[in-house]
Amino acid sequence: MDQRLLDAATRIAEALDRLAPPAPLPPDLDAAEAFVWSPDPPRLAPVRKVARVPIELLQGVERQKRILLENTERFAAGRPANNALLWGTRGMGKSSLVKAAHAAVNAARPGSLVLIEIHREDIASLPVLLNLLRGQSRRCLILCDDLSFEAQDTDYKALKSVLDGGIEGRPDNVLFYATSNRRHLMPRDMIENERSTAINPSEATEEKVSLSDRFGLWIGFHNCDQATYFAMVEGYAAAMRLPIAPEQLRAEANEWSVTRGARSGRVAWQFIQDLAGRLG
């Protein structure tokens, strides 16, 4: 064949591939215990080491820990379980609890559960991910950290149909966990503005808050008192075997929280990182 014709045919083939790319290959979920979803091109990137802390180190969230762990254990065992929304105060271990629960369940049932993280900006591609996971033998826990929507966002409508709706429905081997600082995943003024301008205010509000209703579990995380904050600090210090007297540990931890203007699990961990560095 003439070289010019061959080059032209190659360009045409490449253009057609871009317009109609081949269907993504089924993921190999045995390659790792955790993955990160990338929609363009559609693929699951293996995570060799998940950044997490043991579940026993999470202090002050005993009730939340029990509820989420029981739900995750039921799902891993093949029994019915609910999608979960972990909402509330920042820095209180919402995403840490999901990752710790995944590790705890996999320790009890090795290889039973795959953790898949999807970024907030990729929520629109969630149906593509679910179609890839549909029919897989392993059970998949999808985590979206810091999920929220602003006034201009319309992705929440797609998420609603994926979680609880549509003729296909959510695959039996998939569960969805989300963390957010907002109980209804949207700012309050967004809901109230919609209500004030709508012909039927109650219907407008129902449209906005119905997304959070798609989660069978609402698990709230609230402000941390000083006793709980000290328990977090002491738990981390004991786990890292830091050579420091309890009285000095509390005094320095209290000073650190005052300078930060907050008490939370994140503040406790940041203090322990600073302390461990100073102690060598």
Descriptive overview:
It is a single chain. This protein has 280 residues and is α/β, with parallel strands linked by helices. The protein has two domains: 34-221, Rossmann fold; 226-279. It is 47% helix and 14% strand. It contains ten helices and seven strands. It has helices spanning 3-19, 62-76, 94-108, 126-133, 155-163, 188-197, 201-213, 226-239, 246-260, 265-279; strands at 34-39, 42-46, 84-88, 113-117, 139-144, 174-180, 217-221. Strands 2-1-4-5-6-3-7 form a seven-stranded mixed beta sheet, sandwiched between helices. Strand 5 (139-144), helix 5 and strand 6 form a beta-alpha-beta unit. It is elongated, with a radius of gyration of 23 Å.
